[in-house]
Give the backbone structure.
Amino acid sequence: MPDDENAMTFACQLPVSPASKVIRLGHGSGGTMTSNLISEVFLPIVGNSLLCELDDAAIVKVDQSDIAVTTDAYVVSPIFFPGGDIGSLAVHGTVNDLTMRGAKPLFLTATFILEEGLPIEQLSTIMRSFNSACIKAKVSLIAADTKVVNKGAADQIFITTCGIGTVIRHPAPSARRARAGDRILLSGDIGRHGIAIMSCREGLELETQIVSDSQPLDEIVARMLEVSDGIHCLRDITRGGLASVLNELAVSAHVGVRINEDAIPVHSEVRAVCELLGLDPLYVACEGRFVAIVSSEAADALLAVMTKQPGAEGARVIGEVVADHPDRVVLQTRVGGKRIVDKLSGEQLPRIC
Amino acid sequence: MCLAVPGQVEDIFERDGLHMATVNFGGVRKSVCISYTPDAVIRDYVLVHVGFAISVIDEEEARRTLAALDLTDELNELRTEAPIE
Amino acid sequence: MKYVDEFRSPERARLLSRQIAQTVTKPWKIMEVCGGQTHTILQYGLESLLPDQIELLHGPGCPVCVTPLELIDKAVAIARIPGVIMCSFGDMLRVPGSDGDLLGAKADGADVRTVYSPLDALTVARKHQDRQVVFFAVGFETTAPANAMAVYHAKKLGLTNFFLLCSHVTVPPVMAAVLRAPDNQVDGFLGPGHVCSIMGWHEYQELSLQFKVPIVISGFEPIDLLEGILRCVHQLEEGSSYVENQYARAVCSEGNKHAQTILLDVFQVSERKWRGLGNIPGSGYRLSEAYREFDAEVHFPVATIVTRESPNCISGEILRGVKKPFQCTAFGTSCTPEHPLGATMVSSEGTCATYYKFRK
C-alpha cells in the first residue's frame, strides 16, 4: 500500500459480490468488478462476436462508400418516460442523425456514464431497450465503454454515442442545397416528446396520454430516397423544436422560410398542455420527426410515400423556401396575420402572463 | 397575470381543506382549486389561472358573442349580394 | 378546445378585420394593457390585420417588464441563502438583476424551482419542513387571489417555513398614471379581461369618466382582441367614452367576490415601484398585518438592497407609448435582449425587444 496519502483514491477497493444490486465506484475501477459487470450485465444483452473480443477498437470492412459518422450525448431526465427511455432515445437519435445525411446507419459505439447508486435492474432495462432499438434499426453496437462517477456527479446515467453509416445518396442532403421554390415537408405532429417529458415533472401533476415520439426515421427516409432525387435537405427535430430547425436551415442556406400555422399538425393534448403552461408548440422538443426540403416537382410524390410509412402517416406540406426575408422564418398565423418565428433564446419556460 | 385557460369540471373533491376539482382541458386533466368558484358544478366550464378557477364561463354569453359576430357576417353577405338599384 | 377554438376562427378574424377597416376614418392609438393580450397580438400577427390608421401601443401590463430591478436583486439574494428553496413562475427566472438572474443563481447551486401554481410552492414547503421556502409572488390582480390563498392556507396549516416575496401591482393606478402624463397619446384602451374577472370594472368606469377615454374590457383570444379594437374604434369615431365588456363570458361588473374577500384579507393596498415608471401610490399589494410573518422582505436580511436603474433607459416613455425604441440612444447598442437595460427590453414581448427582433 503506498504510504503517500495523495496516492489514495476514492475507488471502493473492497470486493463486492456479483449479487450487488447497485453500481459502486469499484465497478469503474477497471479491475475485476468492471470485468464482472461487463460479463454479467452488458454482454448477455448486447454481446456479439465483435463486441465479445473486448478490444479497444473494432475493425470492420465496408464497401467503397462514403462513411457517415455522428456522435451524440444523451442526458435526458427522467431516464424512463412515457414512450421510451434513455436507451432507446440514444439509438434513435444517433440513427436519425445519420439518416438525415442520406446515410444507411450501420454501426454504433456508445459510452455509458453511470452514477454511483443506479440500480442495476434499471441499467438492464435500459440496455434491453437500447438493444431492441438497435435490432429494429438494423444497427450493431460494435464498441462500448462504461465509467462510474460519484453520486451526484451524473444524473443516474448518461450515454454518448458514435454512429457510422454509408452514404447511399449523392449528393448528400444538405442545408446548402435548399433553394427558393422548394417545399417544406414535416413528417408528423410536433411536440410529443417535450410534453411527455414535462408530464413527468415533479409537481406538475398533469394527466395526459401523450407519449414520446422517439422513433428511428431510417425506413421512412430510405423509401423517400428510392422515389426521388429531389430531396435537398433533411433535418430531424430535437431540442428546440420545429422552430429551431427551420431557423438553422434558413441561416445555413441563407434563404427565407415561410410556413403556415394551419398546416402544422399538433396533437390536441400537446396543444392543451402548451395552452396551460403558455408554451409555443413550435419550440417543444420532438425525437421522431423530421423536416424535408424538397423540390416543388417532387413534393407530391414524396408526401405520398411518407404518409404510407409507419411513423409518418401525419406528414404534411407546411410551407416553402422563398427568396424574401433571407435567414428569417415567417409564419402565416391561423387567423391570417403574419409573424416572425424567432430563434429560441434559452430554454422555453412556462409563463403565467 | 393573464394566461387563463377554459376547461370542463369533471369531478369535485376536498384536499387538505381546499375545495378542488378535476378539470379536463381538451383531454388533459389537472386538479384545480375551485375555492373562488364554489358554485361550479360538474360539466361547467371554468377559466383556470395558475391552478385556480377564477370564473365560471357564462356559456350563454359565449354563444351570444359568437352569434352576434356571425349574424353581422350574414348581413354583410346579404348586402353584397343585394341587387344594385 | 371549447371556448378557445371558436375565438381563433379565421373567418371571424377576417370579418372583424374588414369591419375595422370600414369603420376607421382617422388615426387612433389604442393601448392594450395586459401582457397576455400583447402576447396574443404578437403571436397571431394581429397588427398585420389592422388598417394603417390604427396603432397598437403595448401597455405596462406585464410583470416581467415592471418588476423593479431591486426586487429581482432581493429574489436572487434570498435564493442564494443556504437552506432556501426559491419557487417562481417561469416568467421571472431569466429577468436579469444587478448580479445575475434566478437561473444563474441556480447554476451556482441555489435551489430554484419553477412552479405552475402558488399551491405547488406550498406543497414544497410542507414536504421540506427543514428548509425555508420562498415564493416569488408576482402578478396583477388576476394572480393575487391565488397567491393570497397560498398564504391564507399556510396560516391555517400553521406553516412557519413558507414566505412570500411580494411584487403585486394593480392596473387602474398605472392606467391613470399613463393618462395623467402631459404627453399622453393613448386614445382608447383594451381593458384587462382577467383582471376584471376578479375585480369587476367599477374602477375603469371612473377612469373612463375622468379622462374621457373608451375602455373595452377584452379577452385574450384573437377574436376577443379584434372585437375589442372594433368596439373601441366605434366609440372613438363617434366621440364616445364609456366602458364596454367584450369579455362577457368571463367578466361580470361585480367581479369575483370570493376572490376579492381573501385577497383583501391577506393583502392590503400599498404604494409600489414600477420599473421605468417610478413609484405609483396605491398601485400594489403588500401582505397585511395579520400575515406579515410570511413576508420574505421582513424575514430575510434584504432591506438594505437598493438598486439603481440605468440612467440611459427611457422605458417609462416607451411603456406609456410616447416614444419609440429607435428614439433611445441605447437601443440596439448598449441595450439588447441579451443585455437589457430596462423594462421594455427585458421581456421578449416588451416593445423594445419586439422592435429589436423586427429591426424596425
